[in-house]
Amino acid sequence: MPRPRRDDWSPVTRAVPPWLAHALRAQRGPVPWSAVARGALSGGPLLLAAVLAGRPTLGVVAAIGTMFAGINDRPGSRRASVGRIGGPALAGAAGLVVGTYAGDHVSAVPLTLLLTGLGLVAGGVSALGPVGSSVGTQLLVGAAVGAGMPLPEPGWQRALAFLAGAAWLLLLRLALPTPGALAGGFRFDGERNAVAGVYAAVADLLDATGTDTATARRAALTAALDHAQDALAGPRLRRYASSAAERRLHAQYAAALPLAEAATALAWAGEPVPARASEGPRRLATAVRGSAPTGPLPAPSRTVPALRALDDALLRAAEAFDRGDGGDLHGRNRSRSAALRTVLGARGREYGLRVALCFGTSAALAQALHHTRWYGQHEHWYWLPATAVFLVKPDLGPLASRVLSRAAGTVLGALLFAGFAAVLPRPEGLVALVAVSGALIPVATRHFAAQTAVVTVLVLALVMAGGEPQASVGRIGETLLACAVVLVAGHLPMPGQRGGAAIRARLTEAADAAQAYLDHVLGESDDRAGRWALRREAYRTLAEARAAIALASAELPPLARHADGTDETAATLELLVDTVTAGAVHLDDTGRLDPRHVRRLTDLADRLGSRGDVAVRLTPDRDRVVR
Would you tell me how many other CB atoms lie within 10 Å of the CB of residue 296? Predict the structure, then answer.
């Protein structure tokens, strides 16, 4: 896995409010040339083929499908990309069908109510995670485009064209190799890099032990484990690994879990460790990347329980690398009932109501403007509700930052397209513009304004290629109107919802996962695989809670105040899970908990109880394991 990108903070951004600072910074990292190549080969060639076949409007829909697939084409394994691209594409096709038939047969008021209801459903589904958010987004944008973009093809043909566009980019993702990955084999390059990233993160944490950067390195280790878990546990035709190479990767991932546990215990102790302690994990990372033997591994000193655990984990890892006989992924096997509880719970309700309000209001305004002929000769009224969908997505940063970036990006993109449209030949110039825009999307995703500018140019080129006149000025006006709608609706209190309900729901999930992990360790269970699975879930839910809190804290004051104090609660929960991890390693080595661990657990549990946000209980078994 590539190293986590660092936000580009400048001295200027430190002196401005958080919501504005977010809009002024962008992610950094190497150019994803493979994704750039896929983008260039996706929408442009499809549009060209459709134009040559005399069906340009079908090419427009197919290119829209590749555009959304390109936005979801993020670094990771091929297996994970199937769900990340395919699931939202199916939702977008369904939205196209519903929107097309509703737009053709339903009047303005029932159509607006239908779109509002879809917003409620899509918003609830978005609470399931990043893929759920993409599913909800493409469902709503597909419905808006289907209802508001008059095309000669029926809904089912539009849906097939949309799916064909997404499938074409997904095929490119599955077929084209990642540069530099062929040394370890073509099929599992993303999975291999993800597992290697875990070992590298363990080594980084060991190097940082006893320093001020240890906490950040432990968070990076959690992110690396999450990434590897998702890369290996994506969609599969068989329940178990189907090849020797895949079984070896599973074994290598499973072998990293006790190493991560021992490194976390050492970081909790806060004492620097010998430099050679990190050499073994780094050599393992190199072996995973190159699909090569591990060679001799330097053994760390065995002076304390955590170092002894690290040494034992290195030995087991070397054996696992040699055998390659598989291992448990400890994936997040959430049931359908758990997913339904999330959709219908506080997070799903709050986000669903917000999306429904923004999407429904913008659809109503677009209908009013359309029927009063404000659009003039332009019959496409989908831009306003589609813009509102992207603006209401919390994945893209604080609300005010999203609004500012969207407005700036749309103005820039529309002005750029107006200039291109005045000089480019048609249709070949528009096809070339679509191809170039598709290639730029993977780079533009580093900042919402840049992504908006590229997408604006691409969509305006597609609309003109489909036979419509140039519409830059109208798109700017609709975008600014959508920004105003979402900025107002995003700060309104939701009926029946307390402010910050979604954050409290995240903290409750994290506290429940921490409690399950604590109970397992204090219960002296011999099921280490179960313990590692509980540990993974505890850290993962905490990371999700911290991300939600950081986002909420960067909002404008009316929304940011709901996050007051929650970051301290999450930090206390993290300290508790770190302490449980250190206690588990000590318990394995000595058969009992150290009194220091018990005192720390008691203090942290009391601290959580005094805050009142969440609670963690120490079970009576703790008295037995101390003796």
Answer: 8
Across residues 11-34, what is the average pLDDT?
73
Q: How would you classify residue 293: left for phi > 0, otherwise alpha for psi between -120 and 50, otherwise beta?
A: beta
DSSP state of 106: S
Instruction: Record the tokens describing residue 172, joined without a space.
Output: 């490119």
Q: What is the DSSP string of 148-200?
A: HS--SS-HHHHHHHHHHHHHHHHHHHHHSPPTT-GGG-STTHHHHHHHHHHHH
In angstroms, the Cα distances linking 461 to 45, 47, 74, 227, 414 are 14, 11, 24, 36, 10
Nearest of 261, 246, 134, 263 to residue 206 by alpha carbon: 263
pLDDT band at residue 294, thresholds of 50, 70 and 90? confident
DSSP-H helix ranges across 233-375? 244-269, 279-290, 305-323, 336-344, 346-371
Closest of 317, 242, 325 to residue 282, by C-alpha: 317
Structure tokens at 577: 């899970």
530 class by beta-carbon count within 10 Å (0-12 exposed, 13-18 middle, 19+ buried)? middle
Question: Whole-angstrom Cα distance, residue 56 to residue 47?
Answer: 7
Between CA 468 and CA 461 the distance in angstroms is 10
Distance from C-alpha of 219 to C-alpha of 544, rounded to nearest angstrom: 11
Contacts 24+ apart (CB under 8 A), 174-183: 174/78, 174/81, 174/82, 176/34, 176/37, 176/38, 177/34, 178/34, 179/33, 179/34, 183/289, 183/290, 183/291
Q: Over 80: is that where the pLDDT of 324 sits? A: no
Mean pLDDT within 365-381: 74
pLDDT of residue 19: 73
CA-only gyration radius of the chain, Å: 26
The DSSP bridge partners found for residue 7 are 27
Separation between Cα atoms, residue 388 and residue 115, nearest integer Å: 12
Instruction: Quickly list H helices, 424-500.
Output: 428-444, 448-465, 472-489
Highest mean pLDDT among 71-85, 179-193, 194-208, 228-242: 194-208
Q: Which of 227, 268, 206, 220 is nearest to 576 (CA)?
A: 268
What backbone phi and psi angles, to 5 degrees, belong to 613?
-70, -50
- Distance CA(324)–CA(350), nearest Å, equals 46
Chain segment 240-283, per-residue pLDDT in tens: 556 777 788 888 898 999 999 999 999 998 888 888 888 989 99
CB 604 within 8 A of CB 575: yes
pLDDT score, position 13: 45
Give residue 170's pLDDT: 92
pLDDT at 432 over 90: yes
pLDDT digits (tens, 9 = 90+) for 490-544: 878 766 556 667 788 889 999 999 999 999 998 877 888 889 889 999 999 999 9
Query: CB–CB of 583/521 below 8 Å?
Result: yes
- Whether residue 141 contacts residue 67, with contact meaning beta carbons closer than 8 Å, is answered with no
Q: Please count the helices (runs of H) and the strands (runs of E) in the chain.
A: 26, 0
